[in-house]
Amino acid sequence: MKSKSSRQLLQYLAVTFGWTWFFWIVAALTGKQADSFSVILLMALGGLGPAGSAILLTLRDRDISQRHDFWQRLVDFRRIRPVWYLIIFLTVPLTSLLAVWTRTLLTAESYSFEQALTLLSRPLSLLPLIFTVLFFGPLPEEPGWRGYALDRLLFHWNAVTSSLILAIVWATWHIPLFFIKGTYQQEIGFGTPGVWLYMAGLIPETILMTWIFNNTRRSTLSAILFHFMINFTGHFLVPAQGFAVYRLAWAGMIALIIILIFGRNLSKNGASRDS
Questions:
Q1: Which residues touch 187 (CB under 8 Å, ≥6 apart)?
Q2: Domain parsing of the chain, residue ranges
């Protein structure tokens, strides 16, 4: 089974990177802004790489039980107990607010909540935002990263090591976005200190997602919802100068505490594929 999972993982990464980078490199070469129709289309097609590759490889698999397991983990909300729904929906906002509080405390600079207040004052505007955030990130990515790749990584390594490997893969996958004009990543700038903060931030996020994944019976839906909260919270709390440092510090501290409490398998039940 381990040899099969290794082969599937390598095939998955090859197809995912080939698929995504093809469209995103073409988008970068057009030289157009990210809000132009052609670039939006190319970015959307490229973003389907993680989920699209996972679905194609799953459909090709002759193991019916694996196919059933893949789809069930994607839609079965009963795998997630109420306390884990609270963790999924509250962890990122609380971490971000702690980052705001710490920055304000240490720098004596006030933080503007103007963006959050504007969005909350127009509740109907949240509907298209929710749709956009969900379909440009969580849904096209998590059936692949957590629903397919993580599952196979856990056949070979414990949850912490698997998370570190997946975080590196996830960070590398984003690289073409740094060369598309008008993207969030391009505004950070490739090769700047900001890019290292961006990449490093994926490590505690990945550890937290694996922790939730292992404690919700390998629920892919849990990863989709947590990824959604990461992106959705970013629209409310617009990063100020230095904000990313404090957010990374808090997320890293929480991830470290979870590792110390739950151990290398990030689960009290020892739920890891290598055990």
A1: none
A2: 2-262
